[in-house]
Design goal:
single chain; alpha/beta; Rossmann fold; four-stranded antiparallel beta sheet; 14 strands
Length: about 350
């Protein structure tokens, strides 16, 4: 029997060793009991009124959110509650109030089950010195219940996948920052989790290493069918990987939804690309009282109140210019993020 994503002979044994079938869940677990690790689950993550304080600081304030399967970006400024939310999902902290489920498992009563079912790539350094890469990944497999032989075989497979084939027998302290991050991802997916949580996975990386991590995250989500929670303060990284987004601020939910749906079109702003001289066409528009600013390979056009896009076609016809592209400008993820933050004030 094989996994839709990886060879999974080893991790198919995990639940049978604990006396459970992968397709058997309690009736009240939130699972529909269809298929492997969540095929047919109602929601990937459910939080209801989750509150967590540290002294006088409220990290989460009655946070309620439901997240579907897929790739989800977790956004928010420093102190928004992102890390506390992740720790809550993994059962690493005790909650003051509220409840929740991850993959149908209760975050209060099934903490160990959640940590065995979920992969986690922390932002902080977590590698052991004087240990070879393959040993580190195999040990991560053993921690979630895999037998030593199975964990070692699986470690070789995932190290090949993340591009560390040649470095598997090197000590981890000799790895570059990008290699260390890929090693952390390998250790998080060694047990073939249904959900992978990445906390600031590209923070402090050079452009080449950053793109390697983003490429891995995209492949895991889009090609391997693994759900992701991708926490980052780098909006382009979230947009490159994720389909959905959650914005937190001061421990509360500020915005949530599919990125495409949140990017609303602007009625009077258009992106225009012409075949000929872009600046000359912008000058023609300016003569008609229309603002047109060069932006990358197109013009960002702001139409006056009461003016429709027909004026752009008219101007092109009068000047003998050819429009190659004309589309309403949509909100950027940065605008969505800043707007959500502004509303909390």
């Amino acid at each position: 029997m094989t996994s839709p994503r990886y060879v999974s002979r080893e991790n198919l044994l995990l639940y049978s060793r604990r006396g459970k079938s992968r397709d058997q869940r309690p009736d009240d677990s939130g699972w529909l009991g269809l298929g492997r690790w969540g095929h047919g689950i109602r929601m990937l993550i459910e939080l209801d009124g989750v509150t967590k304080t540290y002294g006088k600081v409220a990290a989460l304030r009655g946070l309620s959110v439901t997240l579907p399967e897929g790739s989800i970006g977790l956004l928010g400024p420093n102190g928004a509650g992102k890390t506390t939310m992740i720790r809550s999902l993994l059962g690493l902290i005790a909650l003051d109030a509220g409840s929740g489920r991850v993959l149908g498992l209760d975050i209060r009563t099934s903490r160990m089950d959640i940590r065995q079912a979920v992969g986690f790539v922390p932002e902080d350094e977590c590698l052991f010195p004087a240990v070879m890469g393959v040993q580190f990944v195999a040990y991560a497999g053993e921690l979630v219940g895999m037998q030593s032989r199975d964990a070692l075989q699986r470690a070789h497979e995932v190290l090949d996948y993340v591009g560390l084939r040649e470095a598997r027998y090197r000590r981890v302290e000799s790895y570059s920052s990008g290699m260390k991050q890929r090693l952390k991802i390998a250790s998080a997916i060694v047990h073939d989790p249904r959900l992978l949580i990445l906390d600031e996975p590209t923070n402090g990386m050079d452009p080449a290493g950053r793109e390697e991590i983003l490429s891995l995250a995209r492949d895991l989500s889009h090609a391997k069918g693994m759900s992701l929670v991708f926490s980052s303060h780098l909006l382009p990284d979230v947009e490159a990987v994720c389909e959905d987004v959650v914005v937190l601020g001061r421990g509360r939910l500020l915005a949530q939804g599919r990125i495409d749906a949140l990017k609303q079109p602007h009625d009077r702003q258009f992106e225009v690309r012409v075949k000929g001289d872009q600046l000359a066409f912008a000058g023609r528009l300016a003569a008609r009282g229309i603002d047109a600013a060069p932006t990358d390979d197109h013009l960002l056009v702001q139409l006056p109140e009461g003016t429709g896009s027909a004026v752009l076609w008219e101007t092109a016809d009068q000047t003998g210019e050819q429009l190659r592209a004309l589309r309403p400008r949509r909100s950027t993820l940065e605008e969505i993020f800043l707007s959500a933050l502004a509303e909390q004030d």
